[in-house]
């Protein structure tokens, strides 16, 4: 869809890697179909969208490095969904994988990155290049206003306290109320680095205070949802277990139609089947990740096209125009 906007609306000349191939051992390579040395566009655009995140990253890096070695002046990467973006914090004794991916892209030769709705806004600081984090909220708001007739009777539901700011931002724009599903689930992750040595190697040190363990409270709904359209919002819908559990709780509280809304539809494993059998009436997602096969398994999935803002961002970068109009009335919590 992004390439369609290039050719139809902006009349850009689009070229693909005509000699892209894969070896028998699964390694990949590619060759540029034309010279990029001091070409008129001064930028080679690498649009990379696929469900296999590892292949997606390697294709992007191979293409970017190919453009750099061919003396392209700049290389702009377009990744509507940034892989590994959920691994932006250290858990247990693991690594911050998102920082590693950012360093890999920069070393491959990217000079600019365009993406949509990063899992955490702070991920932009992982990169040493400009990153434009576009927002899908205007398109999702437009869908609510046009496709949900009685949206004034809706309530925006945050699936967890961490999604409360996103839900509040949408609720303020729709002039509706907000509800939050609050409580500690059994799957809550701890920091994990909590195994001190059993024997102290040095003496004379005072005892360090330790944090009091959490008390698991039952999950509750904060806010009135009875008889109202419940719209559960989050940035990513993956295995769908959290959305389905939230929908069951909202139905017990007397909510009317329940709609799940997210930007990135990963929908891994049995997520389409789980959603199809759940109390959720609609699953509204954008096309940042291809999910045509998932739609065949779940008729509740509705797709919102966001390719227009991506193609406009690329056009503005290409023409050296300001990007500020793409963030008009966009808040920090969107």
From TrEMBL:
Q: Which family does it belong to?
A: Belongs to the ribose-phosphate pyrophosphokinase family.
Q: Name one GO cellular component term.
A: ribose phosphate diphosphokinase complex
Phylogenetic lineage: Eukaryota, Metazoa, Chordata, Craniata, Vertebrata
Q: Which CDD domains match?
A: PRTases_typeI
Q: Which segments constitute the Ribose-phosphate pyrophosphokinase N-terminal domain?
A: 49-109
* Annotated GO MF terms: ATP binding; magnesium ion binding; ribose phosphate diphosphokinase activity
The record's Pfam families line, in alphabetical order, gives:
Pribosyl_synth, Pribosyltran_N
This chain's protein is named Solute carrier family 5 member 10
Gene Ontology BP terms: 5-phosphoribose 1-diphosphate biosynthetic process; purine nucleotide biosynthetic process
